[in-house]
Design goal:
Layout lengths: L1 E3 L6 E5 L3 E3 L4 E3 L4 E5 L3 E3 L3 E6 L6 E5 L5 E3 L3 E4 L4 E11 L2 E12 L3 E8 L10 E5 L2 H6 L5 E4 L5 E5 L14 E7 L6 E3 L15 E11 L6
Length: 222
């Protein structure tokens, strides 16, 4: 199961005699071409908005540096592969053209895949409630849940960094609470007394974490 919950300075590119810009606006000299993005680096699958701040032209052609092009005054685009891509905006002013270029750095998304097992076995467990916390205190008090989901038929759940929706997996350790009712409906399994903290996550990579579920005849902690 995949749970999608998904830094830098804005990138502003201009070619011409004079340009003035701020985070939310871009003013340019006559017959100048420029564009801006919110950041200069993104993750695969993340929507990028290219904002045109050129002087009004008759048409605009965007080349995204990966073989794809698009016409439009302001466009959005999603890269399917990581890499450094040179984006070229060509603004057409009648028979004249102006060109602006900038580089977008695209990385693989940061992922955390959690697999649940019955303690002391290689048997994976489906239907486990999994909660993700940023701190030990939150884990202990069940506060500030940043993500949650249920393991699939293979006992897995994957959380994917998604900045567009305000969910970032940072290079830090995370705290996991996993639990599942026993078949009798009164007892349960959890990782309260086993392993519940990940190692520091590697950015732009798939991070794996195995959880051991221990049987308990007591009421759930969370």
């Amino acid at each position: 199961m995949i749970a999608i919950i998904m830094k830098n300075k804005p990138l502003i590119i201009s070619i011409g005699l004079l340009y003035i810009f701020s985070l939310n606006s871009c003013l340019v000299d006559v017959n100048d071409a420029c564009f801006s993005t919110d950041f200069d680096d993104y993750e695969v699958g993340e929507t990028i908005t290219f904002r045109n701040c050129s002087d009004p032209a008759t048409d605009y052609l965007w080349d995204f540096g990966d073989g794809n092009q698009m016409y439009g005054e302001e466009v959005t685009y999603v890269y399917q592969n990581p890499g450094d891509f040179t984006v070229t905006l060509t603004a057409y002013f009648g028979t004249d053209t102006k060109v602006a270029r900038g580089t977008i750095h695209v990385t693989s998304p940061t992922e955390l895949r959690i697999t649940t097992y019955y303690e002391g076995s290689s048997v994976t467990v489906a239907g486990v409630d999994v909660i993700l916390y940023q701190s030990l205190q939150d884990w202990q008090q069940d506060g500030n849940r940043i993500a949650s989901g249920i393991t699939d038929q293979y006992g897995e759940i994957t959380f994917i960094s998604d900045r567009t929706n305000g969910f970032n997996l940072n290079p830090q350790e995370y705290f996991i609470y996993a639990s599942r009712d026993a078949d009798n409906g009164s007892d349960y399994y959890s990782n309260e007394e086993t392993n519940f903290s990940t190692s520091i996550l590697n950015q732009g990579q798939l991070n794996l974490f195995d959880v051991d579920l221990r049987f308990s005849p007591y009421k759930k902690k969370k």
